[in-house]
Structure formats: structure tokens, C-alpha cells
Amino acid sequence: MFKKVLVANRGEIACRVIKSARKMGIATVAVHSEADADAVHVEMADEAVAIGPAPANQSYLVADKIIEACRKTGAEAVHPGYGFLSENASFCERLEKEGITFIGPKPKAIQAMGDKITSKKLAAEAGVSTVPGFMGLIDDADHAVKIAAEIGFPVMIKASAGGGGKGMRIAWNEAEAREGFERSKSEAASSFGDDRIFIEKFVEEPRHIEIQVLADAHGNCIYLGERECSIQRRNQKVVEEAPSPFLDEETRKAMGEQAVALAKAVDYQSAGTVEFIVDRNRNFYFLEMNTRLQVEHPVTELVTGVDLVEQMIKVAAGQKLELAQNDVKLNGWAIESRIYAEDPVRNFLPSIGRLTRYRPPEEGREGDIVIRNDTGVAEGSEISMFYDPMIAKLCSWAPDRLTAIDAMSEALDRFVIDGIEHNIPFLAALMRHERWREGRLTTGFIAEEYPDGFSIPAPDGEQAQVLAAVALAMELLRRDRLDRLPGRLRPHSGDFRREWVVKLDEDYLPVTITDGMISVPTELDLEVSGKKFTVTSNWRPGDAVWIGKLNEREVAVQLRPVLNGHALSWQGIRAEARVFTPRTAELDRLMPVKQAPDTSNMLLCPMPGLVVTINVREEQEVKAGETLAIVEAMKMENVLRAERDCKVTKINAKPGDSLAVDAVIMEFE
Fold first, then answer.
1. Choosing a second label site near 135 at 20 to 30 A (CA), which of 467, 591, 634, 647?
2. pLDDT in tens, 101-135
3. In whole angstroms, what is the distance from residue 195 CA to residue 187 CA?
4. How far is Cα 653 from Cα 629, in angstroms, rounded to an integer?
5. Which DSSP symbol is given to 472?
6. d(Cα 644, Cα 630) in Å, to the nearest integer?
7. Segment 505-517 mean pLDDT
8. DSSP H helices in 99-140
9. Model pTM score
10. Cβ(197)–Cβ(134) below 8 Å
11. Alpha-carbon distance 217 to 316, whole Å?
12. How far apart are CA 494 and CA 4, in angstroms?
């Protein structure tokens, strides 16, 4: 077994690999860019080596620097995680020449499966079902339009060397095929250094289901069940689960056996994933093979009990698999939510900055529930524009699917992140979505259920009553402490006001205290808009999450201070709460509402990013839908279009400018 392993990655996956290596008694070496000098993975590892500036193409993607770090530290093997050099065959070959073991498949398998065109041909030869499409190289946009028309719209335009949703577009007509080809080609060149594009038929109402395989160098290969990855945004997975609520045993077995056949066809050795598109009738088609550890591997680990990183290391060291196919049992249900640094109410655009508060839920097992959080950040860490926006992967396990979903919902309510925007409100709302809970999924779920984008819902009905009860319980405790401060000019009278009004956003809810004492723990009997609650909690002022019970229902509400109150978040809803006496509430209703400034004649930068192109000039007349500018953030190009016919009067940015969110790019009349 190896004595020292270098982890050629960063963030949560580097931390994840270090944990398994440490469990196996293997010393670890971290590498880091200048931006990651104080990162969590650097602190966790036994040694750390600086490898260059922040941009990945000057640090994490430079094979020479990784190899030099191995020489410097004496690392015998390299675990690449995912992304960066994890599927770079030439890097593997370089390591072999240096006598360093690559913890992953052999170069031949990476080359065969890393090229999507070649992989589809090999899959067909191995008897794996494939999607109809054009596997040759595409010359230009005109050629792309011609091929798309021949295949029949809709089509999927994809980068041959792609992954992670980059270099991928769906085209429903010729215009979208032309633009999709150009954008996919550009993204592919910048993300992978390979701008080859291919086109295949887009399967309507598809599910994205993938099979985890594990193979050794002795001819043994098994599959460890499947993962449902249909909840996607811009072809990027957001929520995954294992097993799939859609597959039956017969389909699972057929998919698993085809995945194993493909792995054996390329002499695969390590953990890998064979991805399939599955239609409404459970017909499945090969999509691609990822010759690395997948982001969503924790859900497979939770339902099988197999540590995939440990198995990868053992296989790389020449050991035989410890499991046969009959040993693989799927136990319970696991859900993974990807916590991203992105603003869900701004069409999920990236958000960067420092984590001023980072308080994940407690990990571990409690009863029949397991909570796991794979992360590579801590309070004070910076989310930069140079790398992937993922902050953490929050996982829940339970004996059945709905219990696992409810456990995830409760864990999200307890996950506190401040300093940047993030997608926890969206994930929390998703966990309550009936279609998701029923398992009626397609890869178009988010686009179908949120066609106008996501907006954080306001509380209504019982939700509003719950938040009003929590708001009053917090405010009463705060006021009681103020009343008991030493040195008051006039001692507190001891009178106990019973009637209150809680303002939630613009709604006023009357609340009456029927019984109870203000203290820690808090115990109150309340009546909110006619509904009675018994409220108990150990919350103290300063805690970021109010945790307590309302009529035996456990509730976790996040709170953030606002002027004269708190912004409360719970189960994906959010409202600003202020507690008034009845008379103050009457006067508050008379206060004028401040109007937001008019920005309708401006193009604002929707997220922090780099201006790639400005596609118009001053005094130019533009039509609705016309491209105005392209802004890149975290390696994704975002096309900004005109919302109406107008005239450009002033341009305030140029290509190469780095802009903050809401920076004015141009003005119109």
C-alpha cells in the first residue's frame, strides 16, 4: 500500500480524498494555488505545496507542477478527484513515466471514454444502447444546422471533451442550433482546450440515471446500483439520489450489466460512472462514461456502505476487489443537495465573496437518520471567480425516500451561510415540492416548474402563523432582557403585555399570549390569527437559528437582523418580521412605502463576472432578443439580451472588464 498520496485537486473533493487516505493510514500532500493558500484542504493534509497563481490553467491544470510536487514530497501516487486533470490521459502517461501511480483508470480507458464521439462508437460495439446522432466532426455553424435538421429537432449540441454541463446546449430550431454551436464551441475551447462538437437527438421527457461501476486490474468488475440525477439546471446536476424512484429491478440489472460490459471493453480499472438517458418507458441510452470519481458519489456510499475513494486507492495499489456482484445490497435511500454560491432569484447566476458565517448542520446519525456534509470551506473562506461555485454537498440517508427528503429539508433549514448568495432557499423549497416528492422527474424539471425563474415564496396560511409565533417568542425574550438590564433609571414594572401584532412583510397578524413565562427555555401559549400554539425553545439572542417546537412540531428558522426586526427563513420561504404593539401597528400602516430606483433603461451585470464581448455600439438600434453582451462567470458564458426594442445611448464597459453585480454595462432610451 502507498505511504504517501498527493491530492491533485482543491475544495471539498480534496478534503474527501484526504479523509479516506487518513483512515487508511496514508500520509497526504495537498497542492494549492495562491488563492487557496489558506484553504481547508491545505490545513487537513500532512504537507502542502504551492503550485502557482489563482487561474487553474496556471496551477491546478499544469501537469509539470503536480509532478514536481510529487518529486519534492516523495508522493508515490496521485489522486485527481474530479475536474482539472482527472480525465487527462497525457497526465496519466506522464505519471507512469515518472514511476508515480495514478489513482484512476489507465490512459487507454480515459482516452476512449473521454472523447464522447469515440466512446459512443465503443459503446455500440460493446452492445450498449446509444442515442441516434452524428458522431463525426462538425466543421462550422452551417454544418451544425444541416446535421441538426437531418437528425430532427430537438437536438443536443455537446463538446466532445465536455463535462459538468459546460459546452452543452439544446436546440429546438435552426437559429438555436447556430447559436448553440458557437457558444458550445467557445465554452469547450476555454474549459477543455478542445473545441470539437458533436450533435445527437435530444430525448424528450428524459431522466438522467447513472450506474456506478468498480473494477480492478484482475478482471473483476461490478456495479453498485444507480443514481438519479434528473434535477438539473443548465445541464448541471443540482440534486441527486440513490436509488432512482423510477427504475425497477429488471431495468436496474440491464443497465448495470451494460455498464459493466462497457467498462470491460476498455479494460477499466478503478471507480467510474456510466451515464444513461432514460425515457418515460424505461428505454435507456448511453450518454457518456466519466472515468473518475463523480461529484455525487456520496449517495452511492450511503446506500451501499462502500467507501469508493478507499476502493480506488486499493485498486491502484494492485489489490483485488473485496466485493462480488452478489455482495452489493442497496440499503435505504440517500439524497444529495449541492450547495452552490449562486443567486436563485437572479436565474442562479454565480455569487462570489467571503463566507462571513458558515454553520452547517451537525453531521452523524440520530435514530434512523444520517446527515453528511462534504465541504472544502469554513467560516471566513472566500468563494472566488476562478473555480467551481460549489460550497458543499449536503447528504441525508433514511430507510425510505420520503423520510430522507424530510431529513434533508430539516438539515437545509439549519444550514447557515452569510456573506454571499446561495441556493439553499431553492433547495429547501424543492424539498417541499409535490412533484419532486412523488418522484415524477425529468431533466427539464426546473425549467418546467420554474419557467419564469425562482422567486422565494412569501409565507401564507399556517406558514405565516408559524413565523409570527417564532418572531414574537424571540422579540419577547429580547425585550425581557432589556427590561432587566442593571442601572435602569426606572425599574421594570413587571407588567406583562398580552396583545401584540407581528408584521410579516406587508401583512399584519394579531397575536395574543394566553399563558407562559418569558425565559430560557421559553414556554408560551399563543393564539395567532385564531390558531393556538404552544411554543417551547432554548433559543438565546445571538443564535443564528431558532430551534424549537410549535404544538410538538419541531421547527428550525434562520434569522438575520434587519431594521427593527429579523428576516426569517424556513422551508424555502422568507419574510421580514417586526413585532409591534397594536397602537404602533396602526401607525405603521400609515407610513409611506419607499420606491425603488428605475433601472429599466439600463443593462445591469447580473452577477460578478468578466466581460467577454460587447455586441453593440453606442447609438445602435437593437431589437428585442438581440445579444447585447456576453459575460463569463466561473467558466460559464452568459448571454445578455435586449428585453425590448431600444437604442443604445451609452456603453460603460469593454471586453476584459471585471464587473461587480448590478454594475451598469450600458444605457438605453
1. 634
2. 999 999 999 999 988 778 888 999 999 998 878 87
3. 8
4. 10
5. H
6. 17
7. 91
8. 107-114, 116-125
9. 0.85
10. no
11. 8
12. 67
